[in-house]
Amino acid sequence: MYGRALKASHLIEEGPPPQPGDLIEFIRPIYQHWGIYVGDGYVVHLTDQEGWSSLSSAFGGSAVVRKDHLEQVAQGCNYRVNNKYDLKKSPYPPEKVVQAALEQVGQTMPYSVTTANCEHFVTEIRYGNCFSDQAANVTLYAAVGGGIVAAALATIAVVVRSKRQNQ
How far apart are CA 147 and CA 27, in angstroms? Predict the structure, then answer.
């Protein structure tokens, strides 16, 4: 799916080099982090105050927009240009995307894994609409998991009631 990955000093081998305005997907072990390439080796991204990742922001309810070097954000993980939403919506011109991203640097914003995460942030800037496949998947998994838990509890209740009636 991602092609042959190289370490942080390289992009995914099959992918193109980043161009200003491109979405950069950082492939983490549990989730993906997103940024916008603004040129000269830098990305703008929504992250915690220390710049570690958007995942740690999930518990604080807010995050800050930072401009950091691409490799610093990668933190040893693989990354790639991923403008997959270009198939759904036309992006703004690269100059407008870069300008909008840079104007956000330093701002603190609300953070929510499901409605205001780093992927929502970059898609809003690139396309004018915020969306996140990652958030949609979290919501789906939560719904399926909740259904499984409810079914298990119902089964346990039936078994317990049946045992009580048989005693």
Answer: 29
Within 8 A by CB and 6+ apart from 144, the residues are none
- Which two three-digit tokens encode residue 150? 């409810």
**Is residue 145's pLDDT more than 70?**
no
Q: Which amino acid is at 159?
A: V
Sheet holding 23-27, edge to edge: 78-81, 23-27, 32-39, 42-47, 62-69, 108-110
| Element of type H or E holding 39 | strand 32-39
**What integer pLDDT is reported at residue 157 of this predicted model?**
57
As annotated, the active-site residues are 33, 45, 118
Closest CA to 118 of 79, 157, 162, 153: 79
Question: What is the reported pTM?
Answer: 0.71
Q: How confident is the model at residue 142 (pLDDT cuts 50, 70, 90)?
A: very low
